[in-house]
Amino acid sequence: MELFIVSIASLLAGFVDAIVGGGGLILVPALFAVFPTTHPATLFGINKGASVWGTAVATRQYARRVDLRWAALLPAAAAGFAGSLAGAWLVTIISPGFLRKALPFVLLAVLAYTLVKKTWAATTRRVLAAVPKR
Questions:
Q1: How far apart (Å, rounded) are the C-alpha atoms in residues 75 and 101?
Q2: What is the domain extent for residue 43?
Q3: Domain count for the chain
Q4: Which of the two ends of the chain, N or C, has the fewest CB atoms closer than 10 A to its terminal CB?
């Protein structure tokens, strides 16, 4: 039954992520609910694995159709990778009990930020427009 629930949550998270992003907001709580005794670092790693594969496939499809500005993307990817490493390390040193208690509040904060900052995409477009094409 656990595998079925996580599979359905993964399917829904992938669907949402493909349309608007934020599939982790669905999969992370599902993982924490289904596997309550598993260390949070493991659950976050499972979620990150799913998101990396989804992003890789989407990037490949997008790169086939659009001329990407690699001058802007490569530094951003490097910063994202460094942030992921730092976050993975941080999760291993924070108390699992604290993470389980803080997770609902963090997810609510991300939801609130997402709903309030609806103009983020327009701001990003202006910043990327300033980066010269190759």
A1: 34
A2: 2-129
A3: 1
A4: N
Cα distance from N-terminal residue to C-terminal residue, the chain: 51
Phi, psi (rounded to 5 degrees) for 114: -65, -40
Of how many residues is the chain composed?
A: 134
Does any domain span residue 134?
Answer: no
- Give CA–CA dist 90/78, Å, rounded: 18
Express each pLDDT in 57-114 by its tens digit: 888 888 898 888 888 888 998 999 999 899 989 999 999 999 999 989 998 898 788 7
Q: Are 134 and 69 in contact (CB under 8 A)?
A: yes
- Residue 89 domain-assigned? yes
- Whether the model clears a pTM of 0.70, i.e. scores above it, the answer is yes
For residues 71 and 134, is the Cβ–Cβ distance under 8 A?
yes
Q: Is the pLDDT of residue 25 over 80?
A: yes
**Between 55 and 38, where is the model more confident?**
38
Flag whether 7 is in a domain. Answer: yes
Whether residue 106 lies inside any domain: the answer is yes
